[in-house]
Design goal:
Helices cover 74% and strands 0% of the residues. It is built from five helices and no strands. It is elongated, with a radius of gyration of 25 Å. The N and C termini lie far apart (70 Å).
Length: 163
């Protein structure tokens, strides 16, 4: 992708190598995130869903996010031939943009990947207790603003009594 930004021709070998690297790095990161969320489940309380829900969501995100990367690797190695029905882009469409995606492209690139990232985000936010943290920040902000308002009102009342 970086080479394409600088208008450098990308060889098939370079493209395949980037697919393998992306597959390996993404798989490692997703496995580590899921393992961490699984580890943190022991410190959660409540029902099974409340304890293991974040892990379930992050674990479900893994195959969805990896699906398109796996398709790339399988097609690069000719295990899954990129024939008419399994191409990412429609035949005859010159651009590699969303408007040229085939049905397979829409499912793997958009539906699977995006729903996987939604599950990953929800699972990690849930694991981090993000909603509770944001509520604490909101409550603290309201308390500070109320104190400022009260201090300004007291200062104005004091000014009025002196005058």
């Amino acid at each position: 992708m970086v080479m394409a930004i600088f208008s450098v021709a990308v060889t098939d070998a370079a493209r395949e190598l980037s697919h393998y690297i992306a597959f390996g790095v993404t798989l490692a990161v997703l496995l580590l995130i899921s393992a961490y969320v699984w580890y943190r489940a022991r410190y959660r309380y409540g029902s099974r869903w409340q304890r293991y829900g974040p892990f379930i969501l992050t674990a479900c995100s893994l195959p969805l996010i990896m699906a398109d990367l796996l398709r790339h690797v399988l097609q690069d190695t000719q295990v899954w031939p990129a024939n008419k029905g399994s191409r990412e882009y429609r035949q005859g469409c010159e651009k590699e943009t969303m408007e040229c995606l085939s049905v397979v492209g829409w499912f793997f690139t958009i539906i699977f990947t995006w729903s996987g990232f939604v599950l990953l985000i929800v699972g990690t936010f849930w694991n981090a207790h993000l909603i509770e943290q944001l509520k604490k920040i909101r409550d603290e902000w309201r308390r500070i603003m109320a104190e400022r308002r009260d201090a300004k009102a007291a200062a104005a009342a004091e000014q009025a009594t002196k005058a």
